[in-house]
Amino acid sequence: MTRTGVVVQTLPSYGDRGKPAPMDRITMTSVLSFAVLGPVRAWRGQSEIDLGTRQQRLILTMLLVRAGSAVSVTELVDLLWESDPPPSANNVVHRHVGILRRRFEPGLATRESGSVLIRDGAEYRLRVDGESLDLLRFRRLVAEAEGSSGEPAVEFYREALALWRDRCAAGLQAGGRIHPEFVAVDGERFAAVRAATDAALRAGCVHLVLPAIRLAAEYEPLDEALQSRLLLALAADGRRAEALAAYADIEHRLADELGIAPGADLRAARDSLLDHDGSRSRRGPARTRPGAPSNGTEAGSWPPGALELSQPSRAAPPTQLPADHPYFTGRRDVVAAAHELLAGEHRTTTLVIDGMPGVGKTTFAVHLAHRLAARYPDGQLHADLRGFDNDDSVLTPAEALRGFLWSLGVAPAAIPAELHAQAGLYRSILAERRMLILLDNCRDWDQIRHLLPGAGGSLVIATSRRRITGVAGPAGAHPLHLDLLTDAEARELLTRRLGDATAAAPAAVDEIIRRCGRLPLALALVATRSVGRPGLSLPAVAGELAEADGRLAGFGDAHADLEAIFSWSYRALTPGAARLFRLLPLHPNGELSAEATAALGGLSLRSARGLLAELGAQLMVQPGDGRWRMHDLLRAYAVELGEEHDDDAERDAAIERVHDFYRLSAYAAQLPLLPQVPLPEPEPSSHGVVGRSFTGRADAMAWFAAEQRVLTDIVARAGERGQPDTTWQIALALQNYFQDTAQFKQWAAVVGTSLGATGDDPAAQALLHRSLAGACYFLADLDRGLSHLRRARTLFDRLGRRTEQGHVENNMAEIRLEQRRYHEAIGHAEAARTLLSAEGNVRGATTALLAIARATGWLGRHLEALGMFVEARRQFEILGDLHGVGTTQAWLAHTYSMINDLPHAMTTWQQAIDTFRAVRATHHIAEVLVSIGDFHSANGDPALAGRAWNEALAELDGTDSPMVRRIRERLHWHR
């Protein structure tokens, strides 16, 4: 392979606003090149780099396949551990990335990010360009080929295909599993081979790409499109005998491994071979006779009468489609997607429609079949496979085939007894026809694969509650996912069924749609019920649904219909999945992670993921964020099942386990946020539940954001259940997250709820009063904040907790500073420093020094304050407390501005912004920007002041910070 090196170097470092950072740096320059079209490899200049362990090579392969785009840590964990990653998985990924990073840049320090393998939050990306990676060179050459014609296009294809040494990431798969993205890159190769063959045949220079075609055909022996092109290429190169031998080999492979006959492309290629020199006329037509065997058996092996078919049922083609629904509504986007697939360049033979129970799969499939029926003049076949009925009711493939063969005119005595023989006869008949086959309620791929035409122009439309994974297998099969109706479609459905009544009660219609969760089945049942009871108005129907409070009983007589539909999927579950389904409504929110599911069910994480996958196939949905959710009506059904089948003790234990998971996880998540006052370590779970671990601040903040609703719900519910420890521990764990995201009202509400549920625990009450004071401070309710602090100080004094008393004194100093009572602030801060120094709490004592410095500066003693600020910053840097460093930098900058040292002030303010941005402290970034704006305003530069204030507003967008109002007032008065 020709390797072209790329110079990879660090670009100058810039701040978030595009200005050069104070210390630009440029690292060493290295010439690196990479290869992934085969075993993954890398070079520095002409020297190959040792890429280390299999896991490190897998990580590099994923980064290379993304070709410079980001790969999340979660994706890398899934790549390395398919089903059961260890608790330290994220750390292992970071360690592997660090090793790779230093192999690419050997002089790199341990914690430096370097310029090649770059981290951005919870994602990594590899800096590569079009000449440093063989995949990008391949894509460029293919694009040049597609833009050319004749022999030059073939040359581009030849050069592109010569870059391939094996399958993408060859040698890295384990247990037969190959990552889908690696498979997709292989797919690009095979598409290029097909295009190259077509171009070479047109240009008459097939010898240029014949080696690449041979190799690709060896890799994909069952790909009929590739194999047909191999036959044509061999014939064009004068190797007709070899081509005929290759066809015989392909025909046997398809029969032995798939039980199918060659498709139209292969047969056409074979026919072109037979046409050569008039050989076809000597041998007769190559067309497969209806009824001829397609699974490798001799004609004589068919039962008597099977070969007597001659144009069976041509006079009266079967028309078995059920009637189209008279009130069919919406789904225009899915109908358009189906039409686009059928009109596309690649041949579509099967559409598999999946979705949850009651979403309207059968109704949609029937409607779509009627829309398409005219394209298939040889008739329509239909079978309800009853895949989710009781086991003895499920239609077997043999039973379905027997019915289809009867409909196609095969005498019962002539139908073979063996399944593969039935399938072969069925495909032979359909090979010469264009028919539409509707397969409803399929359980899995095994139930329908024998019912698919092997060749010809027929189309299969199948429905299933599961995402049938086998659809990814054969060419020409495509899934179509049916989701809930949109609000507009749901309203249209009710209007079409109920007429003018919907216009007279729009609010009731909205409530019905909400209570039905936009599920077509539920909406149809409500409409039918309303029509059947003329005296029942739509507001009355909406009222009955609301009174049921999410229970299925609100649907009246239709309750049984909903239960019946849902029960088909429930009965198909394994016992473990059925138990988990019944427990899921006990989770306090509609969406949950695999870890929370494991705690709820008392399961290992691996088992929980397996059961969720089983449920997700038909009863749950997994959004893009990796969490799982259940439709409200299915949740109501699960509630009823749980109350019926599970005793109170088991349900209570499940709730306690999930509460323990969130209590322990919340404590672990607040640790990377570096709270100024450490929280008491929680007691272990009596149920053996462990919380999740976190790789750093960004991971913890993302978890808090995803779980905020769940955590606040648990604070309320745990209090009602008599679990005060869970309530106050979660509430306190949230306070730093609320502070950094400027959610001060939520902070006050959650801690206030917890305070009312702590009972007579004085230590917990003191901690909560202190936390509430912090919320009051940010909400500018300073007197109330002082009141809470005095209560906390009294309780801590009674308990003899001197460290906590010191923290309270620091908080009181902060409020006095805000009130401009600087001498009182110094008194509280000095008391805090004395208490905390005596207890060895360096961080708290440094916070007190910072408060003293601020008060001293406000009193006009600026040089004295500067010395204190510099000392405080040094102490915070030693402690690794970025919040403390950023706060000190902000006040140091303010003090420089007070003595008109503008260069130092602006540089230090920018340092404070960078520090706070590193810890994602939105509110503190805005505070610094406000200070910068105030400085420019005081110095007569309203344009710069307005720019800084507007940036501060942008930082606070979507928050409830009182600072927003103050900034807007500034902007108003400076217009």
Main beta-sheet annotation:
5 strands, parallel
CATH superfamily of the largest domain: Tetratricopeptide repeat domain
Question: Which second-level CATH architecture of the largest domain applies?
Answer: Alpha Horseshoe
Q: How much beta, percentage-wise?
A: 5-15%
Number of helices: 42
Q: Tell me the total number of β-strands.
A: 14
| Overall average pLDDT | 81
Radius of gyration: 35 Å
SS class: mainly alpha
In CATH terms, what is the fold-level topology of the largest domain? Serine Threonine Protein Phosphatase 5, Tetratricopeptide repeat
Q: How widely separated are the two ends?
A: 65 Å
Protein name: BTAD domain-containing putative transcriptional regulator
Family: Belongs to the AfsR/DnrI/RedD regulatory family.
Domain OmpR/PhoB-type: 23-128
Pfam families: BTAD (PF03704), Trans_reg_C (PF00486)
Describe this structure in words.
With 975 residues, this protein is mostly helical. The chain folds into seven domains: 30-131, Orthogonal Bundle (Arc Repressor Mutant, subunit A); 221-287, Serine Threonine Protein Phosphatase 5, Tetratricopeptide repeat, CATH 1.25.40.10; 332-481, P-loop containing nucleotide triphosphate hydrolases (Rossmann fold, 3-Layer(aba) Sandwich); 487-547; 564-646, Arc Repressor Mutant, subunit A, CATH 1.10.10; 672-898, Tetratricopeptide repeat domain (Serine Threonine Protein Phosphatase 5, Tetratricopeptide repeat), CATH 1.25.40; 921-975, no CATH class. Helix content is 57%, strand content 6%. The protein is built from 42 helices and 14 strands. Strands 9-10-11-8-12 form a five-stranded parallel beta sheet, sandwiched between helices. It has a four-stranded antiparallel beta sheet with strand order 1-2-3-4, with no helix packed on it. A hairpin with a 2-residue loop joins β6 (117-120) and β7. α5 (150-161) packs antiparallel against α6 and α41 runs antiparallel to α42. The longest helix has 24 residues, at 180-203. The protein is globular and about 105 Å long. It starts with 5 loop residues before the first strand and ends with a helix. Mean pLDDT is 81; it is low at 1-30 and 277-314. Residues 274-327 are annotated as: Disordered. Belongs to the AfsR/DnrI/RedD regulatory family. Residues 23-128 form the OmpR/PhoB-type domain.
